[in-house]
Amino acid sequence: MAVVGRLRLDLVAEVERLPRPGEVVSSRGLTREPGGPGVVQAVAAARLGARVAAYGWVGLDPFGDEILALLNRVAIDTSGIERSPEAPTAASLVFVDPQGTQLAAHALGATGCLDAAQVVRDLPRMGEADGLLLDLAVPAPAAIALLGGLPASCPVVASHPAGEDPGLHWARLDFLVGTRDEFLGPPGLAGGDLDDAARAGEVVLDRGVRHAVVVGADGVYLVEKGGVTRFPAHTSLVNLSVAVDALSAALAVRFAGGSGLYEAVGFACAAASLSSAQARGLESLPTSGAVQALLARFNPHPSRPAG
Q1: Which domains, ranges and CATH numbers included, belong to the chain?
Q2: CA angle (165, 169, 174) in 5-degree steps
Q3: What pLDDT was estimated at residue 188?
């Protein structure tokens, strides 16, 4: 698997409740952990048994050292990660309440250094992968160059849709994975429930995307030209951001490995359930054995929503 995405250091404050605008709340503690889709998807794919190469940028700073050390510990190829002496490593400040609800601010940092020139240089290596995971929040010129030059034989699972970019090769995406809000926009800008978000996924199909996968607390919606199929979560998905990344990695690994569409999505939904059962943490990313064990105990049938 080749993974192209944001590499950042997350600073996580556990709070009794999320602060309102202008309010200061006390934290039960502050932890830090490598994160971002580039990290989480790479580690998730590696734990599922894939050989993984990561691509992106970090700063020439302690945060960057920490991210590279983690990826190297789990045998991820980091030769495609560049280091900037000027831009700091991307970072996030995340507030998490006891229910796992999050409020976060992200600093792009060195991720902004990823450009089309680096992608063109690394395309031959990326094209040799059995599949590619792409975080659509990386700089648009890099994503455009990647999708425009990647061999057709390499399936692509993209995640975190962030609006319509007219220059993006949408038809090159086998799957586009995101939360309800990523497909519809923030709740204050667009109403509707997860069914509405699933139907909104049909919009990206009109751009050429082959399948849209909408992730919500109660499960996963697979949107195809033939309709919408719901895969129930095995447990409530607490951390939707981690769920999207874990699901994307599992979907890419299984689909590239030859699994059928519904088997791959069902497996990925189970992986997301295991990863999101806890409020956060890379330690919750499951192995293939753990996912298979969960499916052996409880494997709900997908269904078509009414309406």
Answers
A1: 2-16+31-297 (3.40.1190.20)
A2: 115
A3: 41
